[in-house]
Amino acid sequence: MTSIATGLRIVRPDQNRPAAAIRLPAVLESIGNTPLLELKRIGGDLKPGVRLFAKAEHLNPGGSVKDRPALRMVLDGISSGQFSPDQTLIDATSGNTGIAYAMIGAAMGFPVELALPENASQERKDLLRSFGAELIVTDPLEGTDGAQRVVREIVAAKPNRYFYPDQYNNPGNWRAHFDGTGQEILDQTNGLVTHFVCALGTTGTFTGVTRRLKHEDQTITCIAVQPDSPIHAMEGVKHLDTAVRPGIFSPDLPDETVEIDSDASVAMARRLAREEGLLVGVSAGANVLAAYKVALQLESGTVVTILCDTGARYLSDSLSCRHDNRLPELKSASE
């Protein structure tokens, strides 16, 4: 396997531009700058002065919003000297960051090991293996919290073998969105965004985008989304009241937190496919449902949310239509 140092120009962090200092393979250069799409059919009954938009992060080359922080954490590790060519990247994941790591590892030439809960969708496991990652399957009842514990034990036993980005506690996670996603939203809305709505997982997307938007305009309302129960169908999303809180998250950052039902999120994900032509995952369904509920209450404003990942990763379970191809009866989003 080609060394990660091959073809790369490493610049030490005192130059303060680690991401810009490394020549990337073409596939990784395509991460970011995703389109902002107006949901005109989903938002067809909103008041005339209200617009609903979604950032199409599922169009990143790895299929999710996690391409951004995964690349940032890898580049930060290389430029700081923490990630050397003879090491293996290891981290805990629910799937999407892991897929991003595996894609980046394949493109840059470094091995990847990932711990993920056994109940992660089969498509995610297959994708990880297709990119050459080695999987460590963990207890599904412990979720990503259990996967993090397993990784820490492995790294403690062989610290020199691994580079452990620790996505839940790595500031590069949210900074990728501060520098990228948040700035893009400001640019694409011409600074007219009034509300940002986003689910909490590692919390990097919400944290980075919110900090960037608030840096520009403190009046922008930033609303966090979480499941209404610890047992839910939104892979990658945390019910923070009952989970280990990521170190990068500040509880005083959201202006408001809303809870969303899993069944309603699945229904909205199916609506996005059938009505907007957007095949996205259940967490994206939760985001759009929450954003739509916010938008319904407004007389005017621009509401932006995130389409976290592609729905192709859920066709064997939550979005499966193998047994019934009819669109499920949907509850009103105002209920």
Instruction: Give the strand line-up of the largest sheet.
Output: 1-2-10-7-8-9
CATH T-level fold name of the largest domain? Rossmann fold
CATH class of the largest domain: Alpha Beta
Q: What number of structural domains do the residues give?
A: 2
In what range is the share of β-strand residues? Answer: 15-25%
The count of β-strands is 10
Apparent shape: globular
Structural class: alpha/beta
The N- to C-terminal Cα distance equals: 54 Å
CATH architecture annotation name of the largest domain: 3-Layer(aba) Sandwich
The radius of gyration is 19 Å
Detail the poorly predicted runs: 1-20, 322-335
Order of helices and strands: HEEHEHEHEHEHEHEEHHE
Largest sheet: 6 strands, mixed
What portion of residues is helical?
A: 25-40%
Figure out the total of helices: 9
Kindly state the mean pLDDT as a whole number?
89
Overview of this structure, please?
- With 335 residues, the protein is of the alpha/beta class.
- It has nine helices and ten strands.
- It has two domains: 26-60 and 180-313, Rossmann fold (3-Layer(aba) Sandwich), CATH 3.40.50.1100; 66-163, Rossmann fold (3-Layer(aba) Sandwich), CATH 3.40.50.1100.
- A six-stranded mixed sheet has the order 1-2-10-7-8-9, with helices on both faces. A four-stranded parallel sheet has the order 5-4-3-6.
- Helix 2 packs across helix 3 and helix 3 (96-108) runs parallel beside helix 4 (122-130).
- The longest helix is centred in the middle third of the chain and has 18 residues, at 171-188.
- It is globular.
- The chain starts with 25 loop residues before the first helix and ends in a 28-residue tail after the last strand.
